[in-house]
Description:
It is built from five helices and two strands, in the order βααβααα.
Amino acid sequence: MSQVCIYLKLKPFVAQYLHHHFGDPVRFEPQSVLNARIVAVLQSKRGHEPEVATEGMTAVCIPYSKQKDPANWNYVSQNGKRFIIELIDALFLNNLWSEMYEMVGDEKRIQSAAYAWCEMHGIDIEHADTIRMKFYRERIKLLKRGIDLRKKTRIKIKK
């Protein structure tokens, strides 16, 4: 793994989540999908100096690759950064949904489940309301599409 980093503007609770699970600077697991996607959007730009840290940005290490050595391949365009941020948000949301869904049995426990989930993932409690609303909005989106994951029994199809 290299020490060359890219810097992403993430929501504070997503940055805390990443730091808790992947360290600071963020280092994704070798051979992970996220590392492969980071390598895919790397560009070699002559005369480009690697980015420097700025306030409110999250450092993500560029993984070492034989094809794209981070010493030379260390530029990511704004669209490439947006793509990486979308992947990180999807990872966060998938983890939130899978764990919160198991924790929440009914509407009354969403807030306390959000507090517990934040605590489990190193996120400040001040973001618990945001986490609760993200979960709630995702559930509403699925319900509008006819997907009710709260059902505990299988639907019997008559033949």
